[in-house]
Amino acid sequence: MRGHLEGLVLASLEDGPAHGLEILRRLEDAGSGALRLKEGSLYPALYRLEESKLVVAEVEAAVGRRGAPRRVYALTPRGRKRLAAERRQWADFVRVVGGILGGSA
Fold first, then answer.
1. What is the average per-residue pLDDT within 8-33?
2. Which of 4, 61, 72, 104 has its CA 20 to 30 A from that of 14?
3. Does domain 5-101 have CATH number 1.10.10.10?
4. How much is the pLDDT for 64?
5. What single string gives the DSSP state of each residue in the chain?
6. Over the stretch 26-82, which tens digit does the pLDDT of each residue have?
């Protein structure tokens, strides 16, 4: 996970804005349940992404539900560019490692 969490979070927001627990759910669903993140890992990543202007957060009022207002995160144009770059880097990584570990017959 190290080094990839921020890219995964950006990818989870590609389908639309979400609050932290929704982001966790999206990542777990996309990973078929094999990816288990903790809030303690997610929120520092979200704050870094927000500080880097890759995501923007708005406070959502607690309308029709109990609890405190939630921060809802959305990709910025800069975040979409970073996500595209992350995907290119990942494809290169997979190609290189696949070439090494794929072996030959």
1. 93
2. 61
3. yes
4. 66
5. -TTTHHHHHHHHTTTS-EEHHHHHHHHHHHTTT-----HHHHHHHHHHHHHTTSEEEEEEP-TTS-SS-EEEEEE-HHHHHHHHHHHHHHHHHHHHHHHHHS---
6. 999 998 878 888 878 899 999 999 999 999 999 987 666 777 788 999 999 999 999
Looking up tokens 């202007």, which residue turns up? 53
pTM: 0.85
**Interior/surface letters 76-102, b for 16+ CB within 10 angstroms, e for the rest:** beebeebbeebeeeeeeeeeeeeeeee
- pLDDT, residue 83, reads 97
Residue 103, Cβ density class (10 Å: 0-12 exposed, 13-18 middle, ≥19 buried): exposed
Q: Tokens for 97?
A: 């490692």
Residue type, 103: G
